[in-house]
Design the sequence.
């Protein structure tokens, strides 16, 4: 077996491990209090419900967010950087956009994003491999 075949086999094993661990994590999260599961697979809990307007896909939003894998390892966090981030909603992954569209300004939600509406087979970092489920806490600060 050559190097390419070994790397392919290793990636397939990692995909299957991440996929199965993600399914188990999502099944447990769905049992928590006040978890809403959408048809897309996006899951969320409202931490704080704001009273501002909700964004549309055409909007750019200002958020604080904290993203981890299912083991709690941080892969991206504006909270850690202490600087809110702004994004056009049309430029983020499907699960992130779908979630933020549900949030009135001033809200904080916890989202669990399955890989099918996340990064799919892409390996984003050592903390977020292919077919990883992501966990985000997002504070929607403003619509820009």
Sequence:
């Amino acid at each position: 077996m050559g190097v390419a075949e070994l790397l392919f086999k290793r990636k397939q094993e990692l995909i299957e491990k991440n996929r199965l661990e993600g399914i188990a994590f999502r099944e447990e999260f769905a049992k928590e209090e006040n978890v809403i599961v959408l048809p897309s697979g996006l899951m969320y809990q409202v931490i704080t419900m704001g009273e501002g307007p909700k964004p549309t896909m055409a909007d750019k939003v200002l958020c604080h967010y904290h993203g981890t894998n299912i083991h709690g390892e941080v892969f991206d966090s504006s909270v850690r950087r202490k600087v809110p981030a702004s994004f056009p909603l049309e430029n983020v992954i499907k699960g992130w956009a779908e979630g933020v569209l549900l949030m009135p300004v001033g809200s904080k939600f916890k989202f669990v994003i399955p890989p099918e509406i996340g990064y799919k087979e892409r390996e984003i970092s050592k903390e977020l491999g292919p077919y990883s489920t992501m966990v985000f806490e997002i504070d929607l600060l403003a619509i820009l």
